[in-house]
Amino acid sequence: MNDTTPATPPTERPTLPDRLSTDPRSPHHVAAVFEHAIGIRLNGKERFDVEEYCLSEGWVKVPSGKTLDRKGQPLLIQLKGKVEAFYR
Question: What SS3 class is residue 64?
Fold first, then answer.
């Protein structure tokens, strides 16, 4: 192995927005953010099922089991608390 290869510069991550949605049809969907792994904490506990969040208003939306709305999308419930978004 040759250790003289130049180090690749770290990819520039976009700043996480105040409000973000995983649904590409939403106006709050930012595709550039989803090129990197994101983590969400609600009240200090990491959640892996978040579909949408808002930092300033302090809420996340998560699917309610297997229930679907009339358009076939998961029915979302809103949970409130202290929300933190971060890159993994």
Answer: strand
